[in-house]
Amino acid sequence: MDHEGILGLYAVIQQELQSPDANIAKVSIALGSVESPLTKKDPTGRCWPADFLGEVKECLDTFQIFVVEVDRQLATKKLDTRGKVKLVADAVWSKLTGVFVNDVLHVQHVYIFTQHLKYGTKSSKRQLDCGGVVTTVLAACQLLALQHGHTDLAACRFQVSEDHCWLNTDPEAGREGTIEVTTDSAAKRALPVDAAAWQGWLYSGGHAPLCSHQMTITAMITSMNPSITARQNTGEDSEQVQRVQRHLLRMIHADHPDLMYPAALGCLADLEEIQMQDALEAAVEIDDKGKLEQHLQANEAQSLFERAIQTSMQPGLGGQHQWYPYSYMFGHLMRRAEFLVKEAAQLLGQEVALQQADTAIQSAMQSIGSRGGAVVLQQYRFMSTDEQLYKDLEGVLEQSCDMFRWRHQQIKQPITQTDQLTSLLEFWDGICHLYTGKAKPSHWVGHLLKTLKLFTAEARGHAASTAEIRSAIMTKANPLWAQLKAPRIKAMFETADIADANGNSSKRQKRSGTHRLDG
Q1: pTM, full prediction
Q2: 467-488 burial string, b = 16+ CB within 10 Å, else e?
Q3: Which end of the chain is more exposed for a tag (fewer CB within 10 A), N or C?
Q4: 3-state secondary structure 390-434
Q5: Residues 141, 291: Cα–Cα separation, whole Å
Q6: Spatial separation of the C-alpha atoms in residues 103 and 120, rounded to whole Å
């Protein structure tokens, strides 16, 4: 790695973190100028910029020329704040081709936008993702406020949920101040978020973190993507980008802990887990039981995941409107359990490894139960825009069911332990809340029923009686679990409860052969 370039990047970030008017454009350009070359598919081209500070300055100059052009357009019109943001967003979109993208890597920085400005006519794919559009518009608004007299634009702030971001001019983060700039339709651009959508998961039920410009730096660092190829399980990551991202988040966590919102803590926890996993595997490889036990005990990643959960429950974020902290904790503990069983058992001893794995699995299941993620799911009603939530819930459900299937294979008889099954039923209760008025995905129902068959009737009955259930449909299904009346259960969950004008519930059969996200 380029030692001078690294120090230059760290100095830029540290300097901007000290200022309430942190230069959004400069930071985003600095991060992008490092991430882009270090994640090239051709390994021979992966290197730091030859002149890091010089490239940052050149890109910033390019962006400021663009802002001057926007200012000239503003000078010919009399617009309110929302109208000005729309003009800025229109100007950004005029330099792009097509819609914003979420499946293209490394297009979230202002650095990429400056490359489009410099070389745009030579490229047919001038793209930014959602974060790239919002960050670029915000950066332009900031410069217009500070350098061109549009002081009303200083009110623009970056607001970020678990799967989306937008601008907000309301210091109280209310819906009326929201400004959506990611739509490719100019007629819909810069409108406030729809009232119904504002209550959904995509917008954290109106409780997404509203970022100061300093916290926006944290958000930009969190959005760094070390992926070189993004294939599941076989993807390749840039270790250099991971090290840079981990160092910067560690620095903010140590010096500015108030700037670490739940997703940032979760990102740092993931990076710490990657580093710790390397140490665990190294200890196993050299048969060092002492080091292995030491690394297993010092679980900084889990501490950070716990902090993310605690932070997500703060009143400023509405209390338990964030799903990912629980999902991340679940995934971390399940990975730890898998490592203990598959890789550490020989060194630790089979009995010890299985006991520790069982403890990890117990905690993982509790993290999605009635005292964890299930409570978050109760806050929302599923919408067609919640595709990422759908995928994540499916992953959690499948991983839970796989774990129970593995346990059944180990003991070669029906499972009698009930605690983890209780958590699974509570998680399903959360899904039932989320899908109120909608059929539950049929293959999810299938996973659940197949898993419940692995338990004794007594275990199923005990789990059903002790689970904290709140949804009407799960309350109705409660007597059916012990004897596992699968046809009735399947029919119950694969139809939608529709309330009539008098509040009475009627049944509508789910259309066959469809797995639409909107039910």
Answers
A1: 0.94
A2: bebbbebbeebeebbbeeeeee
A3: N
A4: HHHHHHHHHHHHHHHHHHHHHHCCCECCCHHHHHHHHHHHHHHHH
A5: 52
A6: 20
For residue 146, the tally of other CB atoms under 10 A from its CB is 14
The SS3 of residue 453 is coil
| CA-to-CA dists, residue 19 to 12, 13, 16, 88, 309, angstroms | 11, 10, 5, 24, 28
Q: Please name which of 251, 256, 168 lies closest in space to residue 211, comparing C-alpha atoms.
A: 168
**What residues pair up with 168 in beta bridges, in sequence order?**
157, 178
CB-based contacts of 17-21 (< 8 A; 24+ apart in sequence): 17/214, 17/217, 17/252, 17/255, 17/256, 17/259, 19/213, 19/214, 20/212, 20/213, 20/214, 21/142, 21/146, 21/213
Rounded distance between C-alpha atoms, residue 457 and residue 483, angstroms:
6
- 81 three-class SS: helix
Q: What pLDDT, in 10s, does the model give residues 470-509?
A: 999 999 999 999 999 999 999 999 987 644 333 333 343 3
Contact 415, 408 (CB under 8 A): yes
Q: 116-129: per-residue pLDDT in tens?
A: 999 875 655 889 99
Structure tokens at 94: 């005029």
27 is written with which tokens?
């930071």
Q: What is the Cα–Cα distance from 282 to 17, expressed in whole angstroms?
A: 36
